[in-house]
Design a protein that fits this description.
- With about 280 residues, this protein is α/β, with parallel strands linked by helices.
- About 20% of the residues lie in helices and about 25% in strands.
- It has a seven-stranded mixed β-sheet, with no helix packed on it. Strands 3-2-1-11-12-13 form a six-stranded mixed β-sheet, covered by helices on one side.
- Helix 7 (about 195-200) links the parallel strand 6 (about 170-175) and strand 7.
- The N and C termini lie close together (about 5 Å).
């Protein structure tokens, strides 16, 4: 099973997609049930505003009773751009309660991060947890495929989403959304139908994106759920109607995800508690 995270930014990404033809989905290996992985996800958060700190404090309070030690991001980690002079105020200070307790961030690059040397300062800063601009992270049966969607490398993405032994789930993470009902940004031109077809062939289970400053989740799309998590601290955007949408809410939030051997359980947690949840058995 595979999970996809998608990052969303404020500028249009390169829309060209080169996808090879594969006759059938790549099955995820069947393994003996193992431990659960619990992680959080946030996006579009590095504003330095009080609400960013409120969301961060909600994460720390949540973690007191529901532990997690990994946070993945869907980009726009720093506003207005990814210059190092903003790191302390807009990253290290708000999330000190997590970082000082050993929680590891693994970020993707949004369009604002990209404005400074194509995101190089954040890639070079170990606290953002990016070994490269495109990378794979494997933890406790979960394969995180984290991509730079400012210039999406479709060839790399096609290979990186192939499940390896011991990968029970594949989650794809990047900034620009594949499906979004938001009225400000919306779905990214040029991503459909090619990316959903690729993800279905590869057996991806979940895709996490950002760029639209809201929370949204699709209906099962060939058994894949596409989530926009862009309510981490930037100004919120309104929701619209869309045929693919299961839920949309213009609220500040983070995601809490439990990857068990049999399902992915996702909760959208606002500053006043859980406001939406869903589960998926993926591909």
């Amino acid at each position: 099973m595979a999970v996809a995270l998608v990052m969303i930014g404020c500028s249009s990404p390169d829309a060209r997609i080169a996808v090879g033809q594969t006759p059938s989905p790549t099955p995820s290996p069947t393994e003996t049930p193992g431990p659960e992985l619990r992680f959080a996800a946030i996006g579009d958060f590095g504003s330095g505003w009080p609400v960013q700190r409120e969301v961060a404090q909600s994460m720390c309070k949540w973690r007191e009773r529901r532990p997690f030690d990994v946070v993945v991001t869907t980009g726009d980690n720093i506003y207005p751009n990814g210059a190092p002079r903003y790191f302390q105020e807009k990253f290290f200070d708000p999330y000190d309660c997590l970082l000082s307790d050993g929680v590891q961030f693994h970020a993707s690059l949004g369009n604002h991060d990209y404005l400074t040397r194509r995101g190089r300062p954040e890639i070079n800063e170990a606290a953002f947890g990016m070994s490269k601009r495109n990378y794979v992270l494997r933890r406790d049966g979960v394969r995180f495929v984290v991509a730079d969607s400012n210039r999406l490398d479709r060839e790399w993405l096609s290979d990186a989403t192939r499940a390896r032994p011991l990968d029970r789930w594949t989650i794809v993470v990047f900034h620009f959304p594949v499906f979004s009902p938001g009225t400000i940004r919306g779905s990214t031109p040029g991503y459909r139908p090619d990316l959903p077809r690729l993800f279905a062939r590869r057996g991806v289970d979940l895709v996490l994106n950002g760029h639209d400053h809201l929370y949204a989740v699709t209906k099962p799309m060939r058994r894949i759920r596409y989530v926009v998590t862009g309510g981490g601290g930037g100004g919120l955007y309104p929701c619209g109607d869309a045929w693919f949408s299961a839920r949309c809410s213009s609220r500040y939030h983070f995601l809490y995800v439990v990857a068990s051997p049999t399902e992915l359980r996702v909760k959208a947690v606002g500053t006043d508690g859980v406001f939406h949840r869903f589960s998926t058995t993926g591909r």
